[in-house]
Amino acid sequence: MNKVFAHLIMTLLVLSVLVPVVQADILVSELCDPRYDYLTDRYIEIYNSGPTAVDLTGWKVVAVGNGVEIFTWNLSGSIAAGDALVAGDQTTVDVFPVDFPDEAWSNSNATWNGNINDGARLKNGSGVVIDDIVVPGSNFENDTMVRNENITSPSLSFNVAEWTSTPVYTPSEATPGTHFPPVSEGPVLGAVTTIPAAPLPGQTVDVEIVVTDAVATITAVTLDWGTASGSLTQSIVMTNIGGDTFATISPIPAQTAGTTVFYQVTAGNDIPAETVSEEMSYSLPYTVTIQDIQGLGTVSPYAGVDVITSGVVTADFGSAFVIQDGTGQYCGLWVEGAVAPALGTEVQVQGLVQEIDSNTTLGGATISSTAAGSLPAAEVLTTGSAGEEGWEGVLVQVVDAACTVSEPATPRWEVTNTGDAVSVDDLGVAPGLILGTRYTITGPMSGKSVAWGIVPRSTGDIVFEDDTAAPVVSDIDPMGPTSLQVTYSEEVSAATAQDPANYSLAGGAVTAAVLVSGQPETVTLTVSLMVNGNHTLTIDGVEDLFGNAMTEVVVPFYYYGGDIPDGYYDSAEGLLGEPLRGALHDIIDGHHSISYDALWTAFYTTDDKPNGKVWDMYSDIPDGIPPYEYTFGVDQGGTAGTEGTGYNREHSWPSSWYGATSPMYTDVFMVYPTDNEVNNKRGSYPFGEVAAPTWTSLNGSKLGSCSYPGYTGIVFEPIDEYKGDFARAYFYMTARYFQEDASWPGSGMTSGAVLLPWAEALLLEWHADDPVSTKEIDRNEAVYAIQYNRNPFIDRPDFVLQVFKPELSPVPNPEILAGMVLHQNVPNPFNPSTLISYELESQSHVDLKVFNVAGHLVKTIFQGSQEVGRHDKVWRGQDQAGRTVATGVYFYQLRAGNYVETRRMLLAK
After folding, report:
1. 436 phi and psi, to 5 degrees?
2. What's the CA gap between 14 and 453, in Å, rounded?
3. Closest among 182, 174, 242 to 216, alpha carbons compared
């Protein structure tokens, strides 16, 4: 053999093995031998189970009788995907589709009777048999034998398990041309429309409905109606009026007012299958006055009835509006479901009268007409009479009424001038009423049980009259053992609220008082060290902006900051800056170090939620529902890739920053249980703030480029509620490993154990914005029980500024003079400028400077000698070079002789 030819033959053989033969998914799908008229009505069906059409040119269907090929149909055309085609006789007794007819079939099939070795072969265009169905037994005598639906490929031998036989008398009882018979649960009923949409008494009503059926032909659509639910005795035929829409051929007859017409639609197809709609209805409304609707009792006599009424729009709250058709009682009505036109517009509305939370309301309303009208004057009432049932929905006014309840968190407000108090609702505007202050309030009355009272429409409906009541303490919150935050019921005067002499702590002392930036009703007090237990604060002389002063007001509170051992921090008291950090290091140094595996056990007590689940700060949503929760032990571990698969051990100060060495590697103050995937996303990136996240966790933690000044790399930002936790964990690391960090590689956030300036500034803000929580206090105790040291910045939040910003620390100067005052800047927050005021008791050399959160000097506002008295200086948000500074927190500091005081301010853009 020629070598070249031999090589060619070998190549072709290899290709024949490697290249698969294209196999068409055409198969014999049915063999039918009906009991009646079998010679003419026998047929063979083929089916295309493949995804595309197949050209049948040259294909053949061969009938096999008693094992011998007895008849052949020559096929043509194509067979579509999912289509079935029939080979049979030209003339049939029972009428059914035959795609490949041949009159000779009836004269050739005497031996094709479903007995032994009868069947069919399917040959492709090359004459190759691709499906060979020769039945060895009596499998389809007087039957139709159909290939099961799950069989989609032909075979070269008969398998009885692939087929299902069913007795049939005629082909119509079989499925010629349909391999899988259509299944229908009935036509699909769509949108129903009544014409007119809102029928009135005396009007006839046509009904239209959209009816579709993807698998069968719709044969009938009928509407049944009646005036009693469940008794639809009248019928109207519906006809197709175009597309899929059917309409009644005659309308439902006109009915009288108060009648409810019930109806439903029935649609059938030729399978046959039938669909019946739910029972629907429309009511023919009564035309009544608002007083008719309100009646004279607490419940409307028209409750549950469809009505038409008219009135002038007196209030619009978006979700509801109010109309009034006269003056006096029982002339007002709340309306829901429609968009109100302008106040003063006369409207005709139709809807269902409902009692919604004791408030008579026209629900599901539609507006049928509008006209120009006149807004009625408010009824001037006492608070005692305003609460009467008849004033529900009426525009009223209570004059010079004092606020007796102010609970914005609830929310709940009440005022009184004569008689009982009346509530003030916040549906239209947050009232913001101050205890003891008197107001004139206008608005419609609401009958809702939660706040039976007046609903102001805007801030203009709440007019201040006078304030003769002193402030009230609404909250007192210990912020640590040396700090209290006192919140008053209203804005207080800076001069009196920031005077420590106006406060006294039983068994202790108040050494400083500072208004919280942007919260003129809240004061932070620096106090002497408190122990766990009950305490009392007495306030005397703090005034509101109207000069009303508090007199000997005693406020009890409870403080718990953990079980700090007696004398634990004695060696650190009175120190600032690096000496304080060194002293804290010596106190918490040499902790008991546990193993890496022991961290799993430690988490059972250090990071357990009140519900016993794992406290994962990367998935938890305080006061909300977390996306997932973990069970200790059961969900331990997991794999990264998807949130919620398990929790692991997160080194919040990444281990690569300190070389992954001990004892840092298992220091529980820095290791937390966190979701595996979020931990993986965070990796070793620094903490920071992200304006445009590239990834966000299910609880809102973010990953992306740092937007905080000083760093532009990738950072991870936890949610606000846990930023203080991580800040104080980092402060702990800087103290615990103070001067033990010579070999630490560091990071974009740290140099050894020292925070870089930008990071320190960031964490100081996080510490200030998210104070120490009960969670942290409890965790501090649990870690102390494990490794015998504490986080001093949880025990003593005052240590934070004393260590990191001693020049800005609120630690009181013992030489502060009572007559020297540095006021809070006004406005605050501000943009672009703010006023800083201070008072000198004697001529002094003054330094007034602004610092950023990193402690760097930004601007010297004034430097020189000044006379006794008040002085005002403006800072225009610029640095020494006249450049506009960035948005953020700044500190301004006054030095006057021996007096030094610092306050915080916010530049907001």
Report:
1. 85, -20
2. 92
3. 182
pLDDT tens column, 20-55: 333 458 999 999 999 999 999 999 999 999 889 999
Beta-ladder partners of 86? 45
Single-letter code of the amino acid located at 787? Q
Residue 376: CB atoms within 10 Å: 18
Task: Output the pTM of the full model.
Answer: 0.56
pLDDT in tens, 799-813: 999 999 876 654 443
Min mean pLDDT across 221-235, 247-261, 376-390, 439-453 is at 439-453
355 by Cβ neighbours in 10 Å (0-12 / 13-18 / 19+) ranks as middle
- The CA distance from 379 to 398, in Å, is 9
Angstrom distance (rounded) from CA 675 to CA 646? 6
Query: Which of 223-237, 512-526, 533-547, 761-775 bottoms out in mean pLDDT, i.e. has the lowest?
Result: 512-526
CA distance 165 to 32: 9
Residue 839 CB partners (closer than 8 Å, separation 6+): 819, 820, 821, 823, 869, 870, 871
Residue count (the chain): 909
475: confidence class by pLDDT, cuts 50, 70, 90: very high
Using an 8 Å Cβ cutoff, are 286 and 257 in contact?
yes
3-state class (DSSP) for residue 585: helix
Give how far Cα 903 sits from Cα of 197, 727, 892, Å.
66, 21, 6
**CB within 8 Å of 841: residues ≥ 6 apart:** 817, 818, 819, 820, 868
If one counts every other C-beta atom within 10 angstroms of the C-beta of residue 155, the result is 14
d(CA 543, CA 496) in angstroms, rounded, equals 6
In the structure, what pLDDT confidence band is assigned to residue 17 with cuts at 50, 70 and 90? very low
CA torsion angle 77 78 84 87 (round to 10): 30
Sign for the CA dihedral angle at 211, 215, 220, 223 comes to negative
Instruction: Report the C-alpha dihedral over residues 666, 667, 670, 673, rounded to 10 degrees.
Output: 50
Bridge partners, 405 (sequence order): 414
**Cα–Cα distance for residue pair 848/902, rounded to 1 Å:** 10
Distance CA 46, CA 200 (A): 60
d(CA 868, CA 446) in angstroms, rounded, equals 57
pLDDT band for position 476 (cuts 50, 70, 90): very high
Residue 11 Cα to chain centre, angstroms: 65
Question: Mean pLDDT, to the nearest integer, of 123-127?
Answer: 94
The confidence score (pLDDT) of residue 4 equals 40
Q: pLDDT tens for residues 644-693?
A: 999 999 999 999 999 999 999 999 999 999 999 999 999 999 999 999 99
Res. 88: pLDDT tops 50: yes
Quick check: helix, strand or coil at residue 288?
A: coil
5 Cβ neighbours under 8 A, 6+ residues apart: none
Q: How many Å apart are CA 224 and CA 53, to the nearest integer?
A: 46
Report d(CA 797, CA 724) in Å as an integer. 11
Give the start-end residues of each E strand in 789-887. Answer: 821-822, 834-840, 844-852, 857-866, 869-875
Q: Dihedral angle at the C-alpha atoms of 355, 361, 363, 365, nearest 10 degrees?
A: 160
Helix axes 774-787, 723-736, angle to 10 degrees: 30
The helix/strand/coil state of 846 is: strand
Q: CA geometry: angle at 883 spanning 881 and 889, to 5°?
A: 110
What span, in angstroms and rounded, lies between the C-alpha atoms of 281 and 302? Answer: 18
Assigned token pair, 583: 């002293």
* 144 in Cβ contact with 175 (< 8 Å): yes
Nearest to 626 by CA among 618, 634, 635: 618
Q: 304: which 2 tokens?
A: 């549950």
- Taking only the tens place, the pLDDT of each residue in 575-634 is 888 889 999 999 999 999 999 999 999 999 999 999 999 999 999 999 899 999 999 999
CA distance 144 to 31: 6
